[in-house]
Amino acid sequence: MCKGGFLLDIDIISGLYHYGLTIIKYEQDYCLVDLKTQEIYEKMSIYYIRRLLRSWNKHRKNIESVI
User: Fold this and answer.
1) What is the pTM of this model?
2) Among 15, 40, 55, 65, which residue's beta carbon has the most beta carbons within 10 A?
3) Long-range contacts, 21-29 (Cβ 8 Å, 24+)
4) Residues with Cβ < 8 Å from 50, sequence gap 6 or more?
5) pLDDT digits (tens, 9 = 90+) for 25-53
6) What mean pLDDT is reported for the chain?
7) What is the pLDDT of residue 11?
């Protein structure tokens, strides 16, 4: 952990970027931010964000296999 900041797994950051999102730390939780609209989504745990990414990626792979 860096002083005054936080480190996140690069897979999370790049995965979110693929969907047009980034992440910010807010208190003890994290918020997703839409890069296009700058909308900030509700606070969530890093565990929940990882689950979302896994689900989105699984869904995306299923769609790509149909196309």
Assistant:
1) 0.75
2) 15
3) 23/49
4) 12
5) 888 889 999 999 999 999 999 999 999 99
6) 85
7) 87
Phi, psi at residue 26, to the nearest 5°? -135, 110
What is the Cα–Cα distance from 16 to 53, expressed in whole angstroms? Answer: 7
Name every residue whose Cβ is closer than 8 Å to that of residue 42 and which is 6 or more positions away in sequence: 31
What SS3 string covers the chain?
CCCCCCCCCHHHHHHHHHCCEEEEEECCEEEEEECCCCCEEEEECHHHHHHHHHHHHHHHHHHHHHC
CA separation for the pair 7, 10 (Å, rounded): 9
Q: Which amino acid is at 32?
A: L
User: Domain residues of the chain, as ranges?
Assistant: 10-66
